[in-house]
Design brief:
The protein has about 220 residues and is an alpha+beta fold. About 40% of the residues lie in helices and about 15% in strands.
């Protein structure tokens, strides 16, 4: 797949087929992704690939917490800054409205939070989830490295015909994730990435993007 095609076709898929992703595909993607940029070549990420029964157990435990109204574990870092202003708050609201519509959840549905939580805790049916951790001693630069690494992984998955959905939501259930994967206490969970083949016959969400002039300034060109 052409790089531009991979970038253009990458999106957060929220309806996966149960068809498993072959181990050799995951091996190939994660091996190639080691070439992602890393300041000082620290390669600060540590990834757990969870599939089959361990993933089923994780989904059961996380969904039970969601259905019980569990607000989640104490956050180790904020998902979003407090007091988002325009244009960020506008983009967030627009994307959320599109996402709820695609999931078939009405905005005024009183059960909306629980429905959204259970869809997330089930990883949208994905047969594999990658959990990315960093050593707690790492700083903002290394968190940026981890973001570039995960983007590389997601683009390589597209080259293999596989889709993904990054989910910071998993940090709400970080203790449950840690129990399943055996995470080191010295590591912090950045996010999970659900991986699989897209389910056929579902509404495909493609959120809009800001115009180039809103986010890019050319100086000297």
């Amino acid at each position: 797949m052409d790089v531009y095609e991979a970038v253009d076709s990458r999106r957060a898929v929220r309806a996966f087929s149960p068809e498993p992703v072959p181990r050799e595909v995951l091996d190939r993607v994660l091996t190639a992704a080691t070439r992602a940029p890393s300041s000082g070549n620290l390669q600060p990420w540590h990834v757990y690939v969870v599939t089959r029964e361990p993933l089923a157990e994780l989904k059961r435990r996380a969904t039970a917490r969601a259905l019980a109204g569990d607000p989640g574990d104490e956050r180790e870092y904020p998902m979003y800054p407090d007091g988002l202003a325009s244009p960020y708050a506008d983009r967030f609201a627009a994307a959320a409205a599109q996402r709820y519509e695609a999931l078939g959840i009405e905005r005024d549905d009183p059960d909306r939070p629980r429905k959204i939580a259970t869809l997330n805790s089930g990883a949208f049916g994905a047969p594999a989830v990658l959990f990315c951790y960093l050593d707690r001693s790492m700083g903002p630069g290394q968190w940026a490295d981890a973001g570039m690494y995960l983007q590389t992984v997601m683009l390589l998955l597209r080259a293999e015909g596989v889709h993904s959905c990054p989910q910071v939501m998993w940090t709400m259930y970080r203790t449950t994730v840690g129990e399943i994967v055996g995470a080191d206490e010295g590591h912090v969970l950045l996010c999970g990435v659900s991986v699989g083949y897209e389910q056929e016959g579902v509404h495909r969400l493609r959120t809009g993007r800001a115009r180039l002039g809103e986010t890019v300034s050319f100086v000297g060109a």
